[in-house]
Backbone:
């Protein structure tokens, strides 16, 4: 993407595009895809009522049923199995940027609408190639004609006169708390709810590790377990086992009413291009956890990414938000990271080590120290 701020640029999307991109992000997460792609966005835009896309489909006589099938087929070709969303794809960044160029310079618009998005894609070679790979139906759209007769083609669209959705905020992840929604619903998964509904398979051979996590959680100090070990040693499986124990009531009374949430760092990072934006989202999560009438424990996989030195661009030093709450006992966490990342980033931080107790896993059944 160019040096244009993603936050400002995505804030130019009209409310229909804003909402559909949020839905596409949730849809991507549900399907287990690593990146939010144009196919996710198109799938959600197809559900909109009488937007620009629907007007263009009718004007150029696209077969809407075939188009829908093609988009679903394109979604089925995407990689699956991701536990969290890494980010919006670069194609979405490019498409929004091109849409703003055409919308603002060609039409003098103050908001990006669906027609601008489609026109920007069709007028950009790499994006046009991607669009037509999703469905050959898009070949029927004459981009030059769409540009010349734009007002007439989308004249009956529900997007007419829609204002920018949230100038200065990224549309891919507006702060839900500002509209009365639950932040945890968007940025985390309720592991206890999944265990209760049978979505987590029984965990065997982990009784000792689960008991040790419970022991740490019951301590007065250093009561935030920090699981370390290479990928594949079963850190997440141990936490899933804990969720199953909580649901079954096979934990001390102090933990029986606890809700265990997996914090999705990928969702927190998606669209957080501006400095401070990631931290703002994380703070809303912490605030909701602290204000919840039901005790909540956050499971943070790859917890080292919440520290500026180990985090992705845009995360800043989010650990400074965690440390005061952990020190006061107002936030309970279970962290997971590799031993190398622990030594490099976490062990050097006295506040984090004072609040946590690490367990090192070296194989599926063997534990080095806890």
Residues:
């Amino acid at each position: 993407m160019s040096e244009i701020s993603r936050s400002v640029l995505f804030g130019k999307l009209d409310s229909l595009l804003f909402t559909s991109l949020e839905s596409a992000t949730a849809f991507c997460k549900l399907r287990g895809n690593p990146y939010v792609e144009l196919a996710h966005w198109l799938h959600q835009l197809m559900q909109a009522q009488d937007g620009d896309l629907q007007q263009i489909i009718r004007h150029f006589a696209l077969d809407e049923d075939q188009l829908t099938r093609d988009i679903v087929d394109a979604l089925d070709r995407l990689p699956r199995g991701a536990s969290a969303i890494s980010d919006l794809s670069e194609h979405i960044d490019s498409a929004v940027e091109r849409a703003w160029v055409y919308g603002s310079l060609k039409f003098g618009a103050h908001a990006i609408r669906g027609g601008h998005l489609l026109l920007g894609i069709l007028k950009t070679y790499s994006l046009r190639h991607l669009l037509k790979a999703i469905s050959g139906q898009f070949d029927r759209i004459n981009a030059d004609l769409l540009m010349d007769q734009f007002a007439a083609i989308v004249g009956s669209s529900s997007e007419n006169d829609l204002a920018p959705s949230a100038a200065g905020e990224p549309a891919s992840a507006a702060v839900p708390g500002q509209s009365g929604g639950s932040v945890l619903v968007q940025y985390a998964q309720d592991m206890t709810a999944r265990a209760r509904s049978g979505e987590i398979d029984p965990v065997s051979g982990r009784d000792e590790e689960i008991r040790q996590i419970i022991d740490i959680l019951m301590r007065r100090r250093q009561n935030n377990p920090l699981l370390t070990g290479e990928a594949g040693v079963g850190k997440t499986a141990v936490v899933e086992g804990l969720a199953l124990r909580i649901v079954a009531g096979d934990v001390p009374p102090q933990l029986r009413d606890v809700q265990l949430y997996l914090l999705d760092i990928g969702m927190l990072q998606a669209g957080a291009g501006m400095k401070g934006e990631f931290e703002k989202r994380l703070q809303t999560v912490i605030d909701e956890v602290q204000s919840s009438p039901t005790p909540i424990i956050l499971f943070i996989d790859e917890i080292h990414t919440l520290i500026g030195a180990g985090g992705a661009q845009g995360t800043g030093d989010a650990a400074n938000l965690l440390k005061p709450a952990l020190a006061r006992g107002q936030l309970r966490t279970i962290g997971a990271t590799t031993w190398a990342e622990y030594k490099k980033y976490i062990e050097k931080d006295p506040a984090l080590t004072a609040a946590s107790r690490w367990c090192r896993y070296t194989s599926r059944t063997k534990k080095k120290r806890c």
Observations:
- The longest strand covers residues 296-301.
- The beta strands are 35-36, 87-88, 188-190, 224-228, 259-263, 296-301, 332-337, 356-361, 367-369.
- Residues 67 and 222 are 56 Å apart (CA to CA).
